[in-house]
């Protein structure tokens, strides 16, 4: 990745608007800024806060990053997020998305992320949706380019099994509606 991550973790942020006045934590690698004082990074850490919704995500990304459309790595883990909002689908260069340790409870919302052409790593464990027996199959089927899910490799066999699971579930549902 390009530049150190912009780290806004552990800042007691409950609304993304709260982040706009925060100064990122300096890590081992120094953060570089451009002439507009925006950070030259493609990574943003907003983990371990109290964020409940992502309404202002685009503005937050634009406020901090010199190239907001190039955001590739986003850590939203350990917040209070309940929904996978459409705003995540606008992050077209996103490759890594951490959402573990939140309160996401509608498994079908994961399907929205299927429009992200480069998403290859996601974490969703520690959310209510993890209790669904179809959880891993559903996520792998919805995100066919995944290489890693919940810090575990997605195998070729799992991809095949997720497709089979998806087809058998859709076939069962169609059959039920016809009867």
UniProtKB/TrEMBL annotation:
Localization recorded for this chain is: Cytoplasm
Cellular component (GO) terms are: cytoplasm
At the top level of its lineage, which domain of life is listed?
Answer: Eukaryota
A family per Pfam? LRR_9
Task: Just give the chief location class.
Answer: cytoplasm
The residues the entry assigns to the signal sequence are none
InterPro entries recorded for this chain? Leu-rich_rpt (IPR001611), LRR_dom_sf (IPR032675)
- Would the keyword Cytoplasm turn up in this protein's UniProt record? yes
* Record's keyword terms, sorted: Cytoplasm, Leucine-rich repeat, Repeat
Q: What is this protein called?
A: Leucine-rich repeat-containing protein 51
Organism annotation = Seriola lalandi dorsalis
Could you read off the lineage of the organism from its UniProt record? Eukaryota, Metazoa, Chordata, Craniata, Vertebrata
């Amino acid at each position: 990745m390009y530049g150190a991550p912009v780290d806004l973790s552990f800042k007691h942020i409950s609304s993304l608007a709260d982040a706009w006045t925060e100064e990122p934590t300096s890590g081992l690698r120094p953060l570089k800024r451009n002439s507009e004082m925006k950070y030259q990074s493609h990574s943003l850490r907003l983990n371990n806060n109290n964020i409940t919704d992502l309404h202002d995500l685009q503005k937050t990304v634009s406020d901090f990053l010199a190239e907001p459309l190039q955001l590739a790595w986003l850590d939203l883990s350990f917040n209070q997020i309940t929904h996978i909002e459409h705003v995540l689908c606008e992050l077209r260069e996103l490759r890594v998305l951490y959402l573990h340790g939140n309160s996401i409870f509608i498994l079908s919302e994961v399907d929205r992320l299927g429009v992200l052409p480069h998403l290859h790593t996601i974490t969703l464990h520690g959310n209510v949706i993890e209790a669904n027996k179809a959880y891993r199959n559903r996520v792998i089927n919805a995100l066919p380019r995944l290489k890693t899910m919940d810090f575990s490799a997605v195998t070729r066999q799992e991809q095949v099994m997720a497709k089979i699971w998806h087809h058998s579930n859709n076939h069962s549902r169609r059959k039920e509606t016809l009867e």
